[in-house]
Amino acid sequence: MKKTLVALAAVAVAGGAFAQATMTGAIAYGFESDTTSSNVTTSGFGMEDAEINFAVSEDIEGLGKLGAGLGLGWGGRATAATANDSNITLTLSSGMKIVMKSAKSAEYLTGGVAGVGANFEADLTYTGLLSRTSNDSVSVSMPVAEGLTLTVTNTEADVVIGTGSAAAAASTPVQRYNTGALQYKVGGLIVDGQYRSYDNQVANSTSSVNTKNRLSASYDLGAAKIGAGIDTNTYTYGNTKTNTLIGLAIPMGSLTLGAQMVTVTASGNATSSSNYTRTGALAGGMYSLSKRTYVTAQYYTGDVGGTSNQTGYLLSLYNTF
After folding, report:
1. CA-CA distance, 157 to 46, in Å (whole number)?
2. pLDDT higher at 106 or 114
């Protein structure tokens, strides 16, 4: 989004540190139609997105640069603004970065490196990928070699300080987790690998996660960008759930076309009915009418369990500032 300068202010601290605030936002309307295997269709026109985000940054003498961001949203025309993502980011002169944030992160495969940006509007979480939730987290990242960055993150439930997953573990069975990630970027190649461990586990459970392993990569060929990835959960019972994805994006001037194909496999469960393989796919495009305005169109289809499937399409018009 194009950043619009809305405030410049001198900060009265030693060294005369200088801060600037920026404001970005988006508003969108669209039409979506969704059909289940039982031929039940829901469709309609409405607000797709309405948000405003503020950011501020300042140089701290002898330490580095500090930035903070706060977002507000009115999705679905809520009667009051609700909190979107927020963060505080400290970047040291050594290159180390410390990030504290409350956010709903993008789904690792469809919205990450492997997805190559082809989920212009919808994603494939309905096929059985883990749903995205808002969480509080603190992470430390640092360069360890040319093109190679190590990041360690602790993630908690999205609640008020002092009442998170650690303090409320006895009464609230949410799982705090720690993630170690290595990302390598050189030229058009990006490779990301992650290992995650969970606490507050329920023994011998088919739904309490023990560990997660992730690996994804993409390569920008210029005429197209291709990506692939795998995301595996291992539960305390010993069963696993593995998601794999292939992504493709083709830029054509103002138009970008893209597609994603996903497979979700559950195995090792006590009953055969709990073991399955599901597939899903989406395809669509984004066309820029100007630097701030674009339209999207997308079609998706996939399994949602048993003999059910789901298909749909959506059209949206975005204006950003």
Report:
1. 31
2. 114
Q: Give the other-Cβ count within 10 Å of 296's Cβ.
A: 20
Angle at the Cα of 227 (from 223 to 229), degrees rounded to 5? 180
pLDDT of residue 29: 94
- Asked if 262 and 109 count as a contact pair (C-beta separation under 8 A), the reply is yes
Per residue in 140-186, pLDDT (tens digit) is 999 999 999 999 999 987 655 544 444 444 455 567 899 999 999 99
Please give the helix or strand (H or E) that residue 77 lies within, else none. none
For Cα atoms 60, 66, 72, give the angle at the middle one, nearest 5 degrees: 145
Radius of gyration of the chain, Cα coordinates, nearest whole angstrom: 21
Round to whole Å and give the CA distance between 280 and 259.
11
pLDDT over 60 at 230, yes or no: yes
- 209-220 and 189-198 beta bridge pairing: antiparallel
Q: Cβ–Cβ contacts within 10 Å for residue 228, how many?
A: 20
Q: Which residue has the higher pLDDT, 12 or 119?
A: 119
Q: Is 227:116 a contact under the CB 8 Å cutoff?
A: yes
Q: Is the pLDDT of residue 114 over 80?
A: yes
Q: Is the model's pLDDT at 92 over the cut of 50?
A: yes
- In angstroms, how far is CA 176 from the centroid of its own chain? 18
Rounded Cα distance, 128 and 43, in Å = 22
In this model, does residue 37 exceed pLDDT 80?
no
Asked if residue 147 lies in contact with residue 186, where contact means CB atoms within 8 angstroms, the answer is yes
Q: What are phi and psi of 146, to 5 degrees?
A: -60, 120
d(CA 67, CA 56): 6
Question: How buried is 203 (Cβ within 10 angstroms: 0-12 exposed, 13-18 middle, 19+ buried)?
Answer: exposed
Inform me whether the pLDDT recorded for 2 exceeds 70: no
Helices and strands (DSSP H and E) totals, the chain: 0, 17
